[in-house]
Amino acid sequence: MSTNHRTNNYLRHLESMKILPSGAGRIPRLNAVILGESLATEENDFVVPSQDFANQANVKSPEQYLKMYKRSIEDPAGFWSEIASEFYWKQKWGDQVCHENFDVRKGNVNIEWFKGGITNICYNCLDRNVEAGLGDKVAFYWEGNELGVDATLTYTQLLHQVCQVANYLKDIGVKKGDAVIIYLPMLMELPITMLACARIGAVHSVVFAGFSSESLSQRIIDCKPKVVITCNAVKRGSKVIYLKDIVDTAINDSTQNGVSIDVCVTYDNKLALKREETKWTKGRDIWWQDVIPHCPTTCPVEWLDAEDPLFLLYTSGSTGKPKGVVHTTGGYMVYTATTFKYAFDYKPSDIYWCTADCGWITGHSYVTYGPILNGATVVLYEGAPNYPDAGRSWNIVDKYKVSIFYTAPTLVRSLMRDGDEHVTRYSRKSLRVLGSVGEPINPSAWRWFYNVIGDSRCPISDTWWQTETGGFMITPLPGAWPQKPGSATCPFFGVQPVIVDENGVEIEGECSGYLCIKKSWPGAFRTLYGDHERYETTYFKPFAGYYFSGDGCSRDKDGYYWLTGRVDDVINVSGHRIGTAEVESALVSHPKCAEAAVVGVEHEVKGQSIYAFVTLVDGVPYSEELRKDLVLTVRKQIGAFAAPDKIHWAPGLPKTRSGKIMRRILRKIASRQLDELGDTSTLAEPNVVTELIELADS
Ligand code: PRX
């Protein structure tokens, strides 16, 4: 069948299912290219999987996708319980596969999947796979920061190490439901500790090891963990980061705020720092290597209800305090495993590398749980992608024969800037599927990823999802989808995206608006830790009856979704979510800062960068030293990744007469779109704008 023919068939199916607006897909206007035969270019708006790829794929055609999608919407209970039955359940769930109230107007929002089912995700990741004969298969290839430093762990070895950590945690009194904070870099000990917590029903909360001591202590104070697990230091690129010092400061802070930590387990990372040079608090600190290897390598699992919490992961919102997103056991297990399998067209022979850190949701769902549930071989990389040079990623791909490579647009853009020669000197012939996550991928970066990295051979799964959604929501299925550079394409099974206008009214067909989801999916978060009210207010009240994602989105005439970025006060820097209020509150904590307003501006590599307008306390002069000090304050309070790229001195901020800062105007000034400032007549002091423009490049 010709490519155009296949694509047009597909569009007609979409239309008949009412995913597409009526009329779309009738006109044979496609100018599609076949993967492996030609390049993705400006003119070609569809990129269609080759017949060879489609033939071997888990979902081989648009028709097969549509059939499965239709079933998942019409009979979610049947669809998901069939998949769930492939896992081990000590006891099957009750009669109702899903119980939900998604509509705040009808009472408290409540989501339950597989309630009454008794299982354990660690058991399903490890024991089940070992019993199925995967014991000698490699679970993790670990690649250290330095060339030539690596390690391997089979499924049996992983199970043993997980049991040792689980036994140790039990020995020190960690029980089902207790929180455990993990502040580790990308060592194998990070997923090992996550799985160990899951095995005993402890709730892990991984804090990205790039967060500052203040951010860490804020999280410790919020979830009151029984234990903190860290390592003394790590080398990232040519820099050594002294993690234990950060943890010490955080624990001191939290102790002063009434939350003390009795045990701090510290992995001795000899490659970064000598044991004797590590600061130590006797009685509280304990070396990982002194206790874990002595623990037994078997450990019974704690059987959990499907709705028992699995983990807690803090993410940024539009107010200052980070939100503790809570995911539970059963639905998350089924959803991450299924999305991984289909969106990456996973096969048991694949070698999979996701460049995300386990400190973010991507590292939870698609470094640890999703792939390990599928019995996959996963590459973990400790270091920086451009160390010792910009070709390191492809060196790793060739070394381990990586076949599925999943990364963020920011990395794609930065490698693109470094030049093709760093890519083309490596073979990369093992690659077959590429993935993108974290922010919209601009079509030019998409094409470079596709044409240069993937040699015009590998479909790209541009996966749209969030910490809150647990797993992919809108994503191509690589064997089935004609792709469009820059579009996350169409919904995953069971997901019903809708676009609403500002009044919360669903818009049909080709349109732009706010992206919401109708009805729950198994991987959805169930609450915000200790604050169900904030959960409802943030996500379910803006557009009653729907989950509101916080993202803007368009749907084109073919029914494809195009994410346009956050519509709330959240900035996405290199795929990391940062609340403007968090940065503002760090800035105003500086004694010389009277007021601050932060906006995001477009950035060539990072997607967005942080631009801060700062008003100083009366009489304090502007100075380069003060500028640096303000940036340092943000680095110290949140982490280096949240540092503003620009501090714009502001004698005053544009406010309405009721005192509200007009960010719309600030965004225009920050991006130097000075002829698009719009109406400034409602400002309390209109000349503030002129002063700000004058100071723009000072
Ligand atoms: O704005 C969207 C963007 O990242 C946000 C979610 O951030 P976080 O919870 O940190 O999770 C990141 C990893 C899933 C979303 O609200 N985003 C994520 N993936 C995409 C994206 N924007 C466009 N396209 C994507 N593929």
From TrEMBL:
Domain AMP-binding enzyme C-terminal: 582-660
Enzyme Commission number, as recorded: 6.2.1.1
A Pfam match: AMP-binding_C
Secretion signal span: none
Ranges in coiled-coil conformation: none
Domain Acetyl-coenzyme A synthetase N-terminal: 65-125
Keyword annotations from UniProtKB, A to Z: ATP-binding, Ligase, Nucleotide-binding
SUPFAM superfamilies: Acetyl-CoA synthetase-like
CDD domains linked: ACS
A molecular function GO annotation: AMP binding
GO biological process, one term: acetyl-CoA biosynthetic process
Membrane-crossing residue ranges in chain numbering: none
Domain annotation AMP-dependent synthetase/ligase: ranges: 134-520
Cross-referenced InterPro entries: Ac_CoA_lig (IPR011904), ACAS_N (IPR032387), AMP-bd_C (IPR025110), AMP-bd_C_sf (IPR045851), AMP-binding_CS (IPR020845), AMP-dep_synth/lig_dom (IPR000873), ANL_N_sf (IPR042099)
Similarity comment: family membership: Belongs to the ATP-dependent AMP-binding enzyme family.
Protein's name according to its UniProt entry: acetate--CoA ligase
